[in-house]
């Protein structure tokens, strides 16, 4: 799974360069998660996942608190969770997850982003079956053997543990996301380079330079959309 981590790093680097945009997206996601249950991460697992992700992107406390207070205040603002699937150049596959208060606007914007940048939308299920939902947790300061020992002592099963770029990356089933983090926190590890529930392609592809440039424009156009929260794909960006 090593090359999968390259794609996550690429996404983090892109989002880190657009802090105001990513903060706004997290504010919306935190609000929705808090509205779907209690605005308390200890009793709302979905909210806890979002807050853990927000921490790795250094989302300011003020933005988090504002979203939680909005949910606590009984705001009537509602969002629909939508998923779009489509294709980019040279057989590339893309999944787009959105939160929107205007379904027609979002569908139109996503369709336009695909069509204007060499892609086309597919029907539901046309792409998602080629991806797996996976928890990805990364940390520094430990070796893969040390991480494995920590997880074994906590009786936590994972899919894979890899050392990459001075970090150890743990891949696990989604329902083990909190268990993995708790195992680390119990031995004093509280900072993570990545803490994501993500969609990873079962098989990555490499694009020729011209197709890659077009593909990157398509991904940028999708991620720039206000209603889009996450964009997943099967293109290996390499190092």
Automatic annotation (TrEMBL):
GO terms for molecular function: DNA binding. Residues 3-74 form the TACO1/YebC-like N-terminal domain. InterPro entries: Integrase-like_N, TACO1_YebC-like_2nd/3rd_dom, TACO1_YebC_N, Transcrip_reg_TACO1-like, Transcrip_reg_TACO1-like_dom3, Transcrip_reg_TACO1_YeeN, YebC-like. Residues 79-235 form the TACO1/YebC-like second and third domain. It comes from the Bacteria. Its main location: cytoplasm. One of its GO terms (cellular component) is cytosol. The keyword Mitochondrion does not apply. Coiled coil: none annotated. One of its GO terms (biological process) is regulation of DNA-templated transcription. The keyword Secreted does not apply. Keywords: Cytoplasm, DNA-binding, Transcription, Transcription regulation. It is found in: Cytoplasm. It holds the Pfam family TACO1_YebC_N. Belongs to the TACO1 family. YeeN subfamily. HAMAP family: Transcrip_reg_TACO1, Transcrip_reg_TACO1_YeeN. This is Probable transcriptional regulatory protein HMPREF0083_00944. The lineage of its organism: Bacteria, Bacillati, Bacillota, Bacilli, Bacillales.
């Amino acid at each position: 799974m090593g090359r999968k981590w390259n794609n996550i790093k690429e996404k983090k680097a892109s989002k880190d360069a657009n802090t105001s945009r990513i903060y706004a997206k997290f504010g919306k996601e935190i609000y929705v998660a808090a509205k779907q249950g209690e605005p308390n991460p200890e009793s709302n697992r979905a909210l806890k996942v979002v807050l853990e992700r927000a921490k790795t992107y250094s989302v300011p406390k003020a933005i988090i608190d504002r979203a939680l207070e909005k949910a606590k205040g009984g705001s009537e603002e509602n969002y629909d969770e939508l998923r779009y699937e489509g294709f980019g150049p040279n057989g590339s596959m893309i999944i787009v997850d959105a939160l929107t208060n205007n379904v027609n606007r979002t569908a139109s914007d996503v369709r336009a982003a695909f069509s204007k940048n060499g892609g086309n939308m597919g029907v539901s299920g046309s792409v998602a079956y080629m991806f797996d939902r996976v928890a990805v947790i990364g940390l520094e300061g430990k070796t893969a053997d040390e991480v494995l020992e920590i997880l074994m002592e906590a009786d936590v099963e994972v899919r894979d543990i890899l050392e990459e770029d001075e970090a150890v990356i743990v891949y696990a089933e989604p329902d083990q996301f909190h268990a993995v983090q708790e195992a680390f926190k119990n031995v004093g590890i509280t900072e993570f380079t990545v803490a994501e529930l993500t969609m990873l392609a079962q098989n990555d592809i490499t694009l020729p330079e011209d197709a890659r440039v077009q593909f990157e424009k398509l991904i940028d156009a999708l991620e720039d959309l206000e209603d889009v929260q996450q964009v997943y794909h099967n293109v290996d960006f390499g190092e």
